[in-house]
Structures
1.
Amino acid sequence: MPPKDDLFELMDKHLPKLKNGDVLFITSKVLAIHQGRCVKADGADKFKLIKQEADYSLPKHKTAGHEFVLTIKDHTLIPSAGIDESNGNGYYILWPKNTQSLLKQLWTYLKKKNGIKNLGLIATDSHTIPLRWGTQGISIGFYGFNPLKDYRGKTDIFGRKLKFTQSNIVDSLSAAAVLLMGEGKEKTPMLIGRNASFIEFTGRDMHKKLVINPKKDIYASLLKPFQQKQK
């Protein structure tokens, strides 16, 4: 629990034996606490923390009586740079640092511990979608598999060749996993996905294959007002 905990020790104690081809979902909060990425909320300036943590941000604004800052953090559109107080026990929980590197470390450890060849890891969080109420899951990092199912060059049911379609496997799975893990006091920070035959496992870091340069994104005109953090 905050401000720091040993995730390897917790997995050894509580995580069931993994099978070849499993996908393990881990909440960003658990990863962050493992790294000690917690700040005592009492006396801390949350908006200063957000500005410090965000890669890009918009000015804070008030919605439904609350002040928010919309940000981009680690190629993800997310409020408040992912900083969260829920289940924080008096701490602000920041996002983990170097998520891909941490996931690779966990992936290597778990593969060896369980004696398996194929394993996927996904770090999850929840976010909101424009023009929709409610939150849903999204990945903030993953390791061990190809994140996309490519339909380009294939045909639809009428023989029309598809030019652009790629199915986002990692975020689709994250949405389902976060729904099952819950957002309140369910105490389910990890979840095992099994028998997903459509996943193409690999030992390479495939993160760059998933993310898009904001200038090339279909929503580039909406992302343009975001201001990059001054280095």
Note: The mean pLDDT is 95.
2.
Amino acid sequence: MKNEVNNVEKGSRAPDFTLPSDDGGTVTLSALRGKKVVLYFYPKDDTPGCTTQACDLRDAMPTFQDLDAVVLGVSPDSVASHRKFRDKFGLNYPLLADEDHRVAEAYGVWKEKNMYGRKSMGIERSTFLIDEDGQIQEAWRKVSPKGHADLLQEALQD
């Protein structure tokens, strides 16, 4: 997967993965062929920006379902953390645990961050719209949590 890091852009093949889900099962991207997939990477469960984004996507789920799209949230948090986050906010789509950040690296969203002069590695909030054939239809990086669901709905309707 490592060599795909810089190639994940509009028109490229989405790197396949299997990750543990908040429901105790696993999700494999290639098993979702035939559906559009909204794959969003977020830094951390139950933080202000991530909660805003997660709840906006939750509220937009009826539209995503009408457009035959699956929403998947990915962060380096554990399955147990995802379960708490899901239950606290009534999230209605799978949250996937990428604890070793291998999938985030494959998508090029595991980045060095600089907060108050302190450098650390973490997720750059990003979303990928994957078409029914497993190709990246759109890629948004450095996403703003608020209003992102509206942007996704427009992209799905085009």
Note: The longest strand covers residues 69-75.
3.
Amino acid sequence: MLKALLFDLDGTLLPLEFNEFIPGYFAELSRKFSDIFPDGSLPALITASTDAMVFNDGLQSNSDAFWSDFSNRTGKSRQSLEPLFEEFYRSDFSRLGDGVGSWPEAARVLDDAKSAGATMVLATNPVFPRLAVVHRLAWAGIDPSRFDLITDYDNMRYAKPNPEYYRQIASDIAKPPEECLMVGNDAGLDLVPAKSAGMATFMVENDYSVRDDGFTPDFSGRLEDLLELLY
């Protein structure tokens, strides 16, 4: 019996293609930190340190993995840079949502699923701080309080597509993986590793779907179709 629903964000609840979002994100970061990284190296440095989160072995939080790697690469301390990054996410990041639309049905599906008694998890790839995730939820028109757990780079020790990311979620919400359903639009990032962790999978069929010919999800359909599994 399904007792927990895990939702991806980009391409699942929010009409946003992550790879199209990244250039604007890096442009805003580079502008914000042009006095500290005047040579334009910041995007490459952040990309490399993000890889440290993707390959995190679980011995530390993703944020610690990022900052340890980033400090080593830049020679600048976390204590000096982290407050500046927090200010960026507080005051500048929201501009990246200009022009990003929303799917009104996403909020309705979440409300109905929560009313059905499911434990709700926002299982967005935890490579951003909470402030950035909350902004992206706002772009989607979704209240963060709908979720019992929101994964971010402070509270997670793994990242997609590591199956351990999904096992940590199951442990954190005190539900066995077989009672969890991962809902996502990307087979490789969302569904294949969730299945490896013992979870059921639901492929969201929309313009952002990324399929894997070698993988068959347990369920598929429009986002609102998953409600049929709960009633």
Note: The chain has a mean pLDDT of 96.
4.
Amino acid sequence: MHPDDRDTVFFLELADTQFRQMDLSFVIVADPRAPRFDVDRDSAGRDNCFATLGRNIPAEIQAMAAGLFPNQTRRGLRLFADFFPRFERFVDSLGMEMIVGEPLTYDNAIRYEKYGFDYLTGKRLMLQIDREFRPGGTLFRRLDGSTPFRMPGAERTVRGRSWAIHDGIMDEAWDGVSIYKMVGEHAGVDTFPDRDNYGGNEAR
């Protein structure tokens, strides 16, 4: 990597809260050799702030076809499983008992469940999403092929659900989901318990 490169291999943003918690604000572990998809840029090449200022649909279609998740510009290096226990020990060494965060996407929330997180807010939404993606549910019926992100069968995978949610399939925007983990404890939460494919489960 070169200092002038647009992307980083590893990026970590942390902040301590007024309640002596560690806020895991942002983490990226990207493969610099992997193809890049400009899902983070608009048609003029400007930062779209995680698609809040407009989406790059052609790049998103390419990224999805390559097996990436929403807002992911490159595939990961699959190192989060090595990073997180070390991070948790670091938090513990500071005398903090809780890690908090706000998942940027549905797949992030599911991913953090695997590492022992529970929900401060949003658990009811996560359970509702799972219920409505099941046969007969509202989100299941909306997987009608009307866009490349809403294809039948997407309900069966974390990636498929996440892209559909990113595409606005819900009546409400993805927002208001906050998570926490007590250091050294695993909450055992699983809001998508019978998924038959959970590929690419490294945090970005």
Note: The two ends are 18 Å apart (CA to CA).
